[in-house]
Write a structure and sequence with these properties.
about 500 residues; alpha/beta; Rossmann fold; eleven-stranded mixed β-sheet; three-stranded mixed β-sheet; 17 strands; globular; disordered N terminus
């Protein structure tokens, strides 16, 4: 009789365990419906998950709208197209999707989450590019998420009529609003994938890093992430009616939008909404640059001033740059052309710039062009971010300098003197081919991936058997040099950064 009772309990126990089973399969229930991913090399991968309604038709140039729930199981086994852009990759106006890689075996694991925002000058790029795949980082105990956002004209076109129809009386920052909507989706749904919604770290490179900077300053993103990593980017230049060495105002962006419509020969927003975006690239108007603007809503104000006043999302950050960012962009130039360009760009400050960045020979002019680009676009904003946050914030700030020597890429006109723009991505994401990559580079990649994932887990990159990375502050402005012999040291090229600090102060005061 006793054994019979025990036998009766076995099915009951099985029923109880099934009711409380939290095993994570390739089918996951989100707030909008069930999705089915794939299993690739033991990693659960979910591709092409919609996080917002398709921004098409009347939703073109509007804030992202909530995704509509679906019936049944949505197949999430294929990357969605990227945003419309002047680049050869699969693309569509219907582009608001994200991708998830996770090794979690249970929805109760609460793994840290890393959300990647790709670069590309706010006009190119997509998560479907293999450069941005995150499967390798997941082996270090994190969930990797990559998100898409509207680019170029679709993402950052401002116009007085669009501002008038907006409830917030602004326009042009749709791409940033897409990022925020994706982060809201992550916060609501990532626990179903075994993630911790309270341990979300955002990270990105170039335009993605600038976007990280903007999200850190935006009140709309408050509470959506607990840490941020900026690889080569920051938005700390002054606000003006053009985007020279800073960020354009809403008024300036609206004026550019009016000019764009004139060049396109379009008379109304309604007419523009009916046009095929691919037509824009056939027009000279397509060469116009579309970029986020300081609208007072998504981006409240001059970010330098916001950080001076302590008005930002105070989270732990890693910020840094590569040693020769500008090598990717510098083109051959004659000394007289170089000097004339400096005088036109820097005005009364030109003499000091030419003294620090001479261009008396063709080679010298080209290298100085690269160095100015490095300083103004990447190094000064990153250093400024680290200084201001360490001064006015309570969270930890870590700064790095990636100077691992790289080879010359086919599209570059000069050999980099260290690491060019975007060179660190393959190290951080561990996307280098181990069969064709040297042992030193593989070791550095392992180190950087460990630093980055430690930061996502603990808010601090340091850990066992790693070279110590001290936090940055103005009294101890220590920087981690990332190369074959990683170690901390002083801020590199400090004299040039201090010169740029004077220049940007001059720009603000001469407005």
């Amino acid at each position: 009789m006793k054994s019979f009772k025990i036998l009766l309990l076995f099915p009951l126990c099985g029923l109880l365990f099934s009711c409380t089973d939290h095993t994570l399969s390739s089918i996951v229930k989100t707030k909008s419906g069930k999705i089915e991913g794939t299993i690739e090399n033991g990693i659960k991968v979910f591709k092409g998950i919609p996080f917002a309604a398709p921004p098409v038709g009347e939703l073109r140039w509007k804030a992202p709208q909530p995704v509509k729930p679906w019936e049944g199981v949505l197949k999430a086994d294929k990357f969605a197209p990227g945003s419309i852009q002047n680049q050869k990759l699969e693309q569509s106006e219907d582009c608001l999707y994200l991708n998830i890689w996770t090794t979690a075996n249970s929805d109760k694991e609460k793994l840290p989450v890393m959300v990647w925002i790709h670069g590309g000058g706010f006009s190119a790029g997509a998560p479907l590019e293999p450069t941005y795949f995150g499967q390798e980082l997941t082996h270090k105990g994190v969930i990797f998420v990559s998100i898409a956002y509207r680019l170029g004209i679709l993402g950052f076109f401002a116009h007085p009529d669009l501002s008038a129809e907006s409830p917030n009386k602004v326009s042009g920052n749709y791409g940033l609003l897409d990022m925020i909507e994706a982060l809201r989706w992550v916060r609501k749904n990532i626990s179903a994938f075994g993630g911790d919604p309270d341990k979300v770290t955002i990270f990105g490179e170039s335009a993605g890093a600038i976007a990280i900077s903007m999200l850190c300053a935006s009140p709309l993103a408050k509470g959506l992430f607990w840490g941020a990593i900026s690889e080569s980017g920051g938005s700390f230049g002054p606000v003006g009616n053009t985007r020279q060495d800073g960020i354009i105002s809403l008024k300036g962006a609206e004026n550019s939008g009016v000019e764009f419509m004139k060049q396109l020969g379009v008379n109304s927003i309604a007419e523009l909404r009916k046009k095929d975006p691919q037509e824009w690239f056939k027009s000279p108007a397509a060469r116009m640059s579309f970029w986020p603007n300081a609208d007072g809503y998504v981006i409240p104000d001059d970010q330098y001033k916001l950080y001076e006043a302590g008005k930002y999302n105070d989270v732990n950050v890693i910020v840094g740059t590569n040693s020769d960012e500008g090598a990717m962009f510098a083109r051959p130039t004659e000394p007289d052309v170089y000097k004339k360009g400096i005088e036109q760009r820097f005005g009364d400050f030109a003499a000091k710039i030419l003294e620090a960045f001479p261009g008396d020979t063709k080679e010298q002019a080209q290298f100085s062009t690269a160095d100015i680009f490095t300083a103004t676009a990447f190094a000064w904003p990153s250093w400024t971010w680290a200084r201001l946050q360490s001064r006015t914030g309570k969270s930890k700030v870590f700064m790095y300098y990636f100077n691992q020597q790289q080879t010359k890429a086919p599209f570059m006109s000069i050999t980099p003197r260290g690491a060019q723009h975007a060179a660190e991505i393959k190290y951080v994401l561990k996307t280098m081919d181990p069969k064709t990559t040297g042992e030193d580079d593989l070791k550095l990649s392992e180190l950087m991936a460990t630093y980055w994932t430690n930061f996502a887990k603990f808010g601090d990159p340091n850990g066992k058997d790693l070279p110590f990375w001290p936090a940055f502050n103005e009294k101890n402005p220590s920087v981690m040099y990332l190369n074959n012999t990683p170690k901390s040291g002083p801020v590199p090229n400090l004299d040039k950064l201090e010169l740029m600090e004077q220049y940007f102060k001059y720009r603000r005061e001469s407005k």
